[in-house]
Amino acid sequence: MATKKRFEEVIIHIGTERTGSKSIQTVMARNRDLLLRGGILIPRSLSFVDHLANHTKLLIMCSPRTHFEDLCPPQVLADNQDIGKYQRLLVEELRLEIDQTPSSVNRLLISNEHLHSRLGTLSGIEKMFEILAPYADTFTVIVFIRPQIECAVSLFNLALRRGATEFRLIPQFDGPRGFDRILGVAQSYFQYDELCSRYASIFGEAHVRPFIYETRAGADPLSILARETRLPVLPIIPFKNSSINVQAQYFQLRLNRAAKEAREGYGMDLLAFIDEFLTSNYRGRGLLPTRSDAAAFMDMFAAGNERVRAKYFPNAPSLFEQTWEQYPEGPDMLETDPDSEGIGLALIRAIWSQRVRTPKN
């Protein structure tokens, strides 16, 4: 007689990136106790921080160091030079947490968007399955997808906020191994059919559940995740558009170039402060690729998108309801020099105000 496994189901949310994963993980972390009483374990042992249920450590268990070292606190890498030993330690920490969980808890919920972007091999996904298989026979893999051009624009905004020194509205895949050297992604990042096929080959086609990403209430990722996995009713974090307007993007670009020329990066505290300042005061539509460039980029993935539609959305006329009106017909650049000086003075005042309010140690 087969031994009954610990959980009835393991639910794995794999992103994709740029589809509201942080909001899901924030709500999950804030409501761990409520979810536990509802029979769902949100593991603490898989996260580096308690306030965000982003289960990066599961990725680490299944990947070579080069795939996760930028996601780890530096001290963690310094203290764990033997990565194989560290990976085994993480597996054991997960086991201990599960063993200490009340028997009334019958489902395990895991979330990490890098399982989309960095676990790109069958062997990595198979390793994840081997780690989780002792705990359940039933798995559900949930993935949110959005038009590739929207992801590309979102990646451009993210790259700019992280120090990019040139505008890259459309990935060019011009770096080593076909990676875009500015945005840091390869063409496979946008291939949803390949992503679903990889997970289906390990977990089973019926257990991979793609959904179209939307931000409207009731169709947002957290609402869909709650509905599909029978989660208790949780508070929704309103969608916050963090895109900054064109003027602020030009200012950010100049700031990034100045830091590079001085051979100095930003400290993380200052980077976070500048990011919050710009998104709070200069929110709005940023630069967009031309309509023809956007359409050409989507054409690169048309065949794969059609395969996803046919398999998972057979009643839909197309995978995405794509419109092009928001994309300009010509290059979307400012005709005059933006008011960088005005933004710079406002930022200096904000930094000075923060220093005045912060007591010295």
Number of strands: 5
Mean pLDDT: 89
Helix and strand run: EHHEHHHEHHEHHEHHHHHH
Estimate percent helicity: 40-55%
Q: State the major sheet.
A: 5 strands, parallel
Morphology: globular
**Order of strands in the sheet with most strands:** 2-3-1-4-5
So how many helices? 15
Strand content of the residues, in percent?
A: 5-15%
- Roughly how many Å is the radius of gyration? 22 Å
Task: Give the helix/strand class.
Answer: alpha/beta
Unreliable parts: none
Q: Span from first to last CA? A: 64 Å
Structure overview:
The structure is a single chain. By secondary structure, the chain is of the alpha/beta class. Among the domains are: 1-145 and 214-239, no CATH class; 246-284 and 331-357. Helices cover 45% and strands 7% of the residues. It has 15 helices and five strands. The protein has helices spanning 21-30, 32-37, 56-62, 74-79, 83-99, 114-117, 122-132, 148-161, 192-203, 221-229, 246-261, 268-281, 291-299, 302-312, 340-357, and strands spanning 9-13, 40-41, 107-111, 139-145, 208-212. The chain has a five-stranded parallel β-sheet, with helices on both faces. The radius of gyration is 22 Å and the shape is globular. The protein starts with 8 loop residues before the first strand and ends with a helix. The mean pLDDT is 89.
